[in-house]
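Worked example

This section walks through a single chain of length 196. The input is the sequence exactly as stored; nothing has been trimmed or padded.
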Amino acid sequence: MNIDYYYSHVSPWTFMGHQRLLDMAAKYSATIDFVPLTLAKVFPVSGGVPLGKRAPQRQAYRMWELKRWPQALGMEINIEPKHFPVDDGPSAKIAVLVQRDGGDISALSLAFMRAVWQEERDITDGDTLAAITTECGFDGKALYEESLGEEAAALLEANCNRANEADVFGSPTYVVNGEPFWGQDRLDLLERVLAA
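Given that input, the structure is written out below as tokens.
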């Protein structure tokens, strides 16, 4: 069984679900099709708005959830990181280039998310992106430089178009056999499908 995994590196919800998704896929011998994207290309199509433009009530409730979920999952995260919100495009472009070359981006994506939510690193900074990519076993400097070019932009655009065609409106979204599951809090429901 295959899971289409649409996600942004700057989403705390994606971070909270990432390793659980990997473990779940391994448990049920499912494959994951990683589709990193930038929410700036998804929100306008689906009616979503960036965090800073949401109503105060929604922003306040988000903070409650950011306090509750890490505790429930036994995870450490900084709910108000120094480098957030930031553009998720630069890291996504590196990920799609690694993917183009046949590389496994599961650990790289986790490292980008950890950088934001645990390590106070700026994943829009070129040196930081190159360092994280190198730490994951890739040629960080070369990939960062290539990520500034047209091919990386086109690959990322294709991912965003794919997400929009699949009616994705937020991160993370998992799709199995055309059935979408939005949010890491739907992983239990996704597991039922995999188990069946």
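What to look for: The domain at 2-195 is CATH 3.40.30.10 (Glutaredoxin).
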